[in-house]
Design a protein that fits this description.
191 residues; mainly alpha; 5% strand
Length: 191
């Protein structure tokens, strides 16, 4: 179970970029990658949804699975809407946000099974790429989730945030890190 501090408590503790979990009765701050490696239980997503999100995130932004895209999104979905850091909250979508992800991930799996007889997480390169292209273009027949290009944009943003939204991520891209206010720590690194 997650213990979610308020935004004020998080800022006061200097833990910007770290997620707070309760593991084994202790409150710990972990990066999304560390939470994933520690096997923090899912709070909002099912295992199938998490597998689909991990596969889609990795297809959109290589490295996002290892960076902890599932732990990041799941944590944010379980947080109060006022503490949620997902891009979706700025796009005119009313909370709660879990149905948006749940419906999009389910629709992606329905499309994958209809076209390839497998869930999205089990698709190989060419079929997965074709389905992602159709998602981005909004051309998936029978889609029942949120607007496909919006779903694509949101998940891609989540994957980018967790993979490259730190000073270390900027360095991996060869881009100078020029934050207006430098955060006290990067994802998972002590302040």
């Amino acid at each position: 179970m997650h213990a979610h501090p308020t935004r004020r408590e998080l800022l006061k503790a200097g833990g910007v970029g770290l997620l707070t979990f309760t593991l084994g009765g202790s409150v710990v701050k972990l990066s999304p990658a560390e939470a994933q490696a520690a096997g923090v239980p899912l709070a909002a997503l099912t295992r199938e949804e998490a597998d689909t999100l991990a596969a889609l995130g990795e297809r959109l932004v290589p490295g996002s699975r290892e960076a902890g895209v599932v732990a990041f999104v799941d944590y944010q979905l379980a947080a109060s809407s006022g503490d949620c850091m997902l891009m979706l909250q700025y796009l005119g979508v009313d909370p709660p946000f879990t149905p948006f992800y749940r419906e999009g991930l389910a629709a992606l799996n329905v499309a994958a099974r209809a076209l390839y007889k497998l869930p999205f997480a089990e698709l190989q390169d060419a079929p997965a790429d074709a389905l992602v292209d159709a998602l981005a273009e909004g051309k998936i027949e029978g889609w029942t989730g949120p607007p496909p290009p919006l779903f694509y944009f949101v998940v891609r943003n989540d994957a980018c945030d967790v993979t490259y939204g730190t000073e270390k991520g900027f360095a991996a891209l060869g881009v100078p890190y020029a934050a207006h206010i430098t955060p006290p720590s990067a994802w998972g690194e002590p302040s």
